Amino acid sequence: MKYRFSSSQIFMARTLAVLLWLMILGAIVWSPLVVSWLWQRKSITLFVPPLVIDPLVIKQFEEETGIRVHIAYFENPIALLSKMNASQGRGYDVVLTEDHALHALIGAHLVDEVQAEQVPFMKKIDPTFGQNYYDPGLHYSIPYYSIVYGIAYHTKIAAEAAADPHWSFIFNPPPLLHHRICMTDDPREALLLATFYAKGVLEDLRDVHTQQEVVHILRTQKKYVDVYSLERADNLMQTESCLAAVMASSDYWRIKAKYPFIEFMVPEEGSFKAVYSFAIVQRSEKKELAYHLIRYLFQAKVLHHHMHKFGYLPSITSVLTHAKTPPSFREYGSRPLFFFEPVVSDRLLNDLWIQVLS
Amino acid sequence: MKYGSRAPLPWLLPLLALGVYVFLYVPIAVLVIFSCNKSELPFVWEGFSLKWYTHLWHSPEIWHVLCNSLIVAFSAAFLSITMAVLYVFYGTRRMVQQLYITFYASLATPEIVLAVGLLNLFTLFSIPIGLLTLIIGHTLLGLGYVIPIIHARYQELDKQYMEASLDLGASPGQTLRYVMIPLLKPALLASALIVLVISLDDFIISFFCSGGATQTLPMYIFVMIRSGASPVVNALSTVLLLLSSVLVLLFSSLHIKKMDLLR
Amino acid sequence: MTGLSKRNLKQLFREQIPFFLSIPSLIWQILFFYIPTILIIGLSFVAMTGYGFTLYNYWLCCTVTYAFIIARSLLAAFITSFCCVLIAYPVCYYLALSIERAKNFLLFLLILPFWTSVMVQIYAWFFVLERHGLINTILLRLHLITQPVALLNSSIAVYIVMIYCYLPFMIMPLYAQLEKLDTRLLDASADLGATAWQTFTRITLPLSVPGIRTGFFLVLVPSFGELAIPALLSGGKQLFVGSVISQFFISAREPHLGAAFTVMSCIALAAAVGLMYMAFSWFSTPAERNAL
Prior knowledge:
Order of helices and strands of chain C: HHHHHHHHHHHHHHH
CATH topology of one domain in chain C: MetI-like fold
Strand content of chain C: under 5%
Helix content of chain C: over 70%
Shape of chain B: globular
Shape of chain C: globular
Distance between the termini of chain B: 21 Å
CATH class of one domain in chain C: Mainly Alpha
Number of domains of chain B: 2
Number of helices of chain B: 12
Structural class of chain B: mainly alpha
CATH class of the largest domain in chain B: Mainly Alpha
CATH architecture of one domain in chain C: Orthogonal Bundle
Oligomer: heterotrimer
Radius of gyration of chain C: 25 Å
CATH superfamily of the largest domain in chain B: MetI-like
CATH topology of the largest domain in chain B: MetI-like fold
């Protein structure tokens, strides 16, 4: 005869059923953590921006050493920070990124101190790199290269550009440039550029009146801007959609051979630079392999190859002053160059930027 | 009966209809044509060439991304259909009748709210964001489409088959496998195709729930458009277009067959 | 579960197997849809510092800027929906009521763009709207303009592509509704001496309102939260709800503010949908009101 169960017993049995499903789901969903913990393969993950490290060089490294390198790309430093924060560095071993992103990573204790004996080439790096705001003395980062920001312009307006080699060329442009400017879409860069243009001193952005002035300048600039994008700037110049763009020197260098109608200038009153450095992720369990990769990438021949392919300014002095290095590379440093320092909080920058764009 | 033809301007309606078709297909046609462009500049025509397709073929990144997309799509389809069938078959009348509208809610909310909620949930519980979280998100989307389809089809089924099977001594599991699933096959295939296409083409949930190494095709195209495209994107888009079209063709032919069967 | 022998326990669990097998989809829906939604609402009330109930997040979001962004998204959604109705109606009418041969094939062609990825559709429009793109090339060749028109990176581009992407969402329910139309009514109306226009306005149009309504909401709700189209086609110059939410959650890492803004946008959307629903029921006949 069948036993009739009380409703409370049925309820408990059903609750157990639900819990069983939850456990199954949980096991599946958290399994990658377990898998990565158990699986100690000889492979490392390199987290870089696109168009910075040549995958062919990495392939050579893999063939020579047998260490598998998985390259993960992040579109911009903000994506990097959010992914690193979300996973607490799990899943990545080496990161190559800009100064301000490193500043955030160092602050969040996501990167490890550099072990000096693993990087004997540090003394060959230009000592001026050590004087910075994000990692003074270079304890956490190994600078790989730097880029300079400037204005790329079409030869059609070369005359106007020669007449006004200042930032006012894009903030207060001649009529030919109306609605043909490509401005950077990064809030920090745009706001600091406008602060520099207005005041010349970046710390002034902390003052509320300056903030309003800067927002006003950017809002006035909006009608001259066609697109807000830093990543697409080179593409927009190539297709002649824009006649002037805020661009990084490396982007210009990469495209200038193919598109001779694009010129580049660094404004006389000064401009900005960004330093890209390697950093070892704190959580990584394969730091030895990571250092191996870094040492490989710092070889002179690899640096030369990257410099010519991607157009950036390497950190090793001997490479930069080498005879084969194009002379314009050395000229870029002649103007006063500033960092895009975090003088105000990210949240404030975001707020101001939303005010500009709305 | 041609109802529009007795209007004062009988050619107006077909013209408007044609206009809409042109509006729908000209951009796609231009995209496909320019994928065979020899020049690297996306908007300047220089001659016919299939080199971007060979470029696509040889690019390991794109194969990886395609693999991801397919894995996620098939897993989402499998999971959502299995769960839907089990729900509709094993659920008590009360559970199914009263609770199945809860599945409509995910269709009624904007996808960005779904995506943001999922991302929040995953970060809150430290669930590693990757292929699995992507599958979870797409299955959620799929459930919203599959459950109404399977439920509707199940209602239409003649329950006598099920009762006869149970009377003849089959267990519910056997009834499910040997009686119900064959009867439901067209609906299962149709829902599978829908979930596959939705998952392959989905952008918003993939944008929020994909990790560094797990990108789907639409995400990849988005990143390439953002950072300045070359005709490789055209070739990739054309491939994605063909993939979706084939699936839809299959779906339509099934649908038409089903309509013929009903007649 | 005291007092149950082992055999009874086994029986209990065996009886609950159907329940066990049927609940995964419910668990999935609750766990991955309802709970995250509740979490988002809850998150919007939590202070940014970590703990404590607060309305401060909402206070920060109640600025003119954010209201403007929500209004802009609502406007875009409404314009998209209205234009979709206007564009979809002739095609659906033609397919449903005017032709007989090749109906399935033409319907397949009409629905096909729906199944292509949003990315592919957006990217295709770049080629049409760009300075050297299709429209400008044609206009220049016909000597209608001397300089290329800047169509891309503007509101117009956003609207055009939104209409393009959401048109199939309107076509499907509208076509289904017109297909179901009892053509004998149209015959009867013609027999009773009505002109084609009178038949249309008095019979076809009112009877197609449920389809229009479904399509309208199918377009309104998703287009409000649209993310990719404004991001790529407005040149970064305009912010919509989708871009702001993604900025909050991904770029600026401000989940609390993001949650508050999401909740506010959803309330705005729900209010708009409610208003439109009332408007629709206002304009339909009592018979249809019963059906609604």
